[in-house]
Amino acid sequence: MRPSLPKPALIQQFLRRLRLSRSAILPVTPLDPHYAAGQCHVNVAHRVREAGGQVVPGWLLRPGMINEAAYHAVWQPPGGTALVDPTPRAGDEARLVFLPDPARRIAPSAVPGCDLLLWADRILGLQDMPAVFQGRPSAERVDIAFDAAAHHALRQLGLTPAGAVAIGHRPG
Fold first, then answer.
1. Coil vs helix vs strand at 123
2. Maximum alpha-carbon separation in the chain
């Protein structure tokens, strides 16, 4: 069984390794029954399109036998400073530790067959973050095609990959 939140020392390690300055503990806040677990970028782009505000990219920390961080997105409502995570969790997590990282954004891809250019869109262990992707040294950006679940979530919410990217780059 996983602990509910990472220990403060682990959070500090990730902050140092990623050269970030702050973390936040966020509740998972269900906002739309159509939001799918594991589709944070799609869910948050939809939320911004429907209610305004902005996409805040960053890292979701997961404690366990192997501590890990996953590239993640949350929503900042218009005019507010609070962050909201509208993406349901596959497990029973009610809260999460989020490290905002506004310098890393999803961008359009120039590679045929890939919808988006994601910065290391994988789960990263502390030991290989952020310099290794799929076991190889990595540049800052990695081309990855959206999988079938992401395409389904986009269609369900009336978004396209290009639309989701554009929303993520809109000034707040």
1. strand
2. 42
The residue length of the chain stands at 172
**Nearest Cα to Cα of residue 103 among 138, 56, 163:** 56
Q: Whose CA is closest to 74, among 61, 65, 83, 82?
A: 83
pLDDT in tens, the chain (172 residues): 444 678 888 888 888 877 788 888 888 888 899 998 888 888 999 999 999 999 998 888 876 656 677 778 999 999 988 999 999 887 767 788 898 988 777 665 555 555 554 444 444 444 444 444 444 444 444 455 667 788 888 889 998 877 887 787 766 5
Q: How many Cβ atoms sit within 10 Å of the Cβ of residue 117?
A: 18
Give the contacts of 25 (CB within 8 A, at least 6 positions apart).
Answer: 5, 95, 96, 97, 98
- The DSSP H or E segment spanning 164 is helix 161-169
- Enter the pTM of the model: 0.75
Dihedral pair phi/psi, residue 101, rounded to 5°: -140, 75
